[in-house]
Structure to design on (691 residues):
């Protein structure tokens, strides 16, 4: 990669920051918790770009006690020279001009990441203040502020407090430090989510080998412990400080190879060393000059029968797939077919493997870095540049053909070919059973089992499927529902834990068959999210250990066999209340112990409390008001941003090895904690109120 000298004249100057403040959603998607983290990622992405291009190897993110966040890299330092046309320093342009930055013309960095690439100026526009320090021989400083101009009745966003200052202080350090305070007037919440941040930083460390990424959480956390009760029975809470979080650092010298090992975690790998290859190719995207594309992959097979392919484009997880994944599969299939034929695994009379055969048990990480990316799909996480397919296919073919020449790797390729042969034989043998599964999902769900109360409407956008724990709660839900658009599927016992079963075993289970049939979009590889009868599939289980287990089993099922449904944001967890606090006509519901105190205060003296031990204890009206009515209920949408973590934790909780699970449960014996863990780690779930 050639080093290009850079100065402030290179920066393009577009529009003002007020536009960002007026329509933040256009730039950062939302002003909720996702949008908040987006403005941190803009700064982190810049630091990662500097590292990915070989100029930095350390990045530190700090969540400060005052609510601000900072990012430090040890790269070259942002440009500090003055642009002769606009008479501004590079730093000032970067933080005050939208779309300013080398990465938009792609000359400055050979490869650049970033979520939407809106740039650091958006972070500045949506911050109360932002401070920058650049270490380039001397220490340079600059501060920005957002204020409301009362006379002109408008926001002045990210305005420099003074020009960039060379403090004169000498430094032997290199790099850039950016600290900012997200604006409370803009965001619905300004609370950083530690799990979200640590997981993303870990992922970035896997994707950028050798870069050390650290996270410091300097915030103070308190818990409220109950104090003495007064004569009215009210207890004042006592604030108790919780211990500070230990800093964490992620650094993976093996990069995506380490990522594959991490993904496989406890699972048995058929060969210990994942296969790895990387190359830079030319690619000509339609309407653009020839550019470079960097392709890197690692994979290893396990005994599993499903595939886990984690693909990324410019460090962004492409959970909806796209042309790079197609190229990867085509290349792999071709090489393994050729190998199997020339090494006697496939006899002359045998049909060739199909893609499904080589996917069985495959854990792979594929990363692509390129310019002018086109993202498509429901969540804009599908790579839409068709030209990438052949670049990846060629890289996989060339890479694996090289690896095959290494005699030491013969046992590895033999195992891969044999695994594919087993899968092909199994596929041919069990085609009939698979047809049964297909027939189940094609039927309307009523003829197979009688217990699904299907809604009368046929519009998936409107329709909701409630999977309810227990026949009695199921009965109540049937009374409470809106017949036109709410279907109820009561579960009798615990459904089958599919983690320990093959796809065919899963298909023999009545409850699973009913579920597949009710959703009507197929199963496993035949699953087609476009055919789902419900855009909301809501798991409704009790707030106890059994309910948690049922929720876990169902999430495992969706994760393993209907992942697209989760990716498309169609899977939800219903939140029944734990308490009903009432006095005559006044009724309040509390969803946790903290809320209970608040609700008691609202209802006031003479209140009574009903503690719900299960959904079955609620009347139809109560279940409707608290859990099913779209106007008043709370749902948790299950998202899959951290699918890697999800796969691991599911394997630990639901897999064969009892030891890990016992330890995990011992450490998280408190149900609420286990519950929280599942929502945040299994599938990063965001609580969102229905609108
Ligand atoms: C703490 C977060 N780090 C950054 O935001 C950061 C941006 C940046 C940078 C350059 C070096 N380090 C950086 N850190 C840089 C320097 C030079 C050329 N290109 C990039 C040079 O000295 O020649 N960025 C400069 C511009 C931009 N980043 C961008 F905003 F355009 F992206």
């Amino acid at each position: 990669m050639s080093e290009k000298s850079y100065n402030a004249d290179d920066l393009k100057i577009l529009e003002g920051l007020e536009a960002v403040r007026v329509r933040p959603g256009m730039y950062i998607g939302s002003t909720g918790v996702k949008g908040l983290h987006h403005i941190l990622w803009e700064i982190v992405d810049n630091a990662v770009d500097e590292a990915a291009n070989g100029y930095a190897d350390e990045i530190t993110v700090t969540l400060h006690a005052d609510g601000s966040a900072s990012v430090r890299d040890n790269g070259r330092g942002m440009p500090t020279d003055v642009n002769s046309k606009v008479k501004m320093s590079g730093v000032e342009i970067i933080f005050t001009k939208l779309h300013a930055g080398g990465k938009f013309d792609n000359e400055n960095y050979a490869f650049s990441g970033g979520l939407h690439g809106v740039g650091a100026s958006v972070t500045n526009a949506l911050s109360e203040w932002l401070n920058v320090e650049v270490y380039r021989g001397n220490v340079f400083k600059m501060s920005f502020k957002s204020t409301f101009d009362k006379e002109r009745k408008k926001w002045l966003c990210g305005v420099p407090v003074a020009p960039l200052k060379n403090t004169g202080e000498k430094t032997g350090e290199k790099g850039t430090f950016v600290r900012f305070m997200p604006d409370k007037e803009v965001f619905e919440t300004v609370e950083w989510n530690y799990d979200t941040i640590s997981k993303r930083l870990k992922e970035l460390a896997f994707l950028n080998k050798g870069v050390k990424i650290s996270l410091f959480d300097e915030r103070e956390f308190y818990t409220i412990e109950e104090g003495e009760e007064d004569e009215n029975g009210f207890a004042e809470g006592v604030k108790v400080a919780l211990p500070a979080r230990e800093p964490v650092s992620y650094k993976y010298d093996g990069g995506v190879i380490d990522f594959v090992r991490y993904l496989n975690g406890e699972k048995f790998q058929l060969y210990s060393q994942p296969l790895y290859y990387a190359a830079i190719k030319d690619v000509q995207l339609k309407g653009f000059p020839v550019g470079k594309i960097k392709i890197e992959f690692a994979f290893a097979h396990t005994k599993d029968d499903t595939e886990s392919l984690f693909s990324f484009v410019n460090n962004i997880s492409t959970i909806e797939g796209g042309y790079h994944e197609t190229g990867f599969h085509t290349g792999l299939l071709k090489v393994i077919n050729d190998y199997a034929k020339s090494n006697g695994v496939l006899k002359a009379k045998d049909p060739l493997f199909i893609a499904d055969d080589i996917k069985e048990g495959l854990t792979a990480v594929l990363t692509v870095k390129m310019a002018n990316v086109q993202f498509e799909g429901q969540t804009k996480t599908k790579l839409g540049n068709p030209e990438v397919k052949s670049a990846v296919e060629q890289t996989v073919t060339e890479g694996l053909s090289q690896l095959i020449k290494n005699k030491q790797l013969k046992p590895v390729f033999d195992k891969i070919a044999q695994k594919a042969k087993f899968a092909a034989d199994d596929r041919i043998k069990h085609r009939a059973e698979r047809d049964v599964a297909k027939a189940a999902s094609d039927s309307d769900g009523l003829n197979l089992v009688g217990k699904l109360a299907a809604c009368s409407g046929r519009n998936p956008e409107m329709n909701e499927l409630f999977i309810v724990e227990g026949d009695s709660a199921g009965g109540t839900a049937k009374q409470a529902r809106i017949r036109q658009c709410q279907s109820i599927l009561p579960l009798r016992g615990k459904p089958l834990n599919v983690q320990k079963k093959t796809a065919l075993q899963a298909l023999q289970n009545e409850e699973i068959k009913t579920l597949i049939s009710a959703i009507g979009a197929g199963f496993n590889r035949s699953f087609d999210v476009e055919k789902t009868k419900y855009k909301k599939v809501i798991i409704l289980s009790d707030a106890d250990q059994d309910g948690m287990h049922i929720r876990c089993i169902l999430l495992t099922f969706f994760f393993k066999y209907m992942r697209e449904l989760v990716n498309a944001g169609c899977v939800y967890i219903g939140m029944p209340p734990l308490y009903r606090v009432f006095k005559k006509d006044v009724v309040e519901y509390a969803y946790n112990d903290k809320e209970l105190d608040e609700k008691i205060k609202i209802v006031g003296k003479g209140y009574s409390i009903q503690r719900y031990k299960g959904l079955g204890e609620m009347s139809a009206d109560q279940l409707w008001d608290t859990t099913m009515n779209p106007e008043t209920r709370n749902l948790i949408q299950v998202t899959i941003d951290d699918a890697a973590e999800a796969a691991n934790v599911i394997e630990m909780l639901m897999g064969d090895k009892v030891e890990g699970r016992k330890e995990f449960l011992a450490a998280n014996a408190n149900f609420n904690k286990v519950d929280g863990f599942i929502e945040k780690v299994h599938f990063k779930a965001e609580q969102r109120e229905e609108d």
Residues 395 and 494 are 46 Å apart (CA to CA). Residues 1-15, 100-106, 444-450, 665-691 have pLDDT under 50 and may be disordered. The longest strand covers residues 127-149.
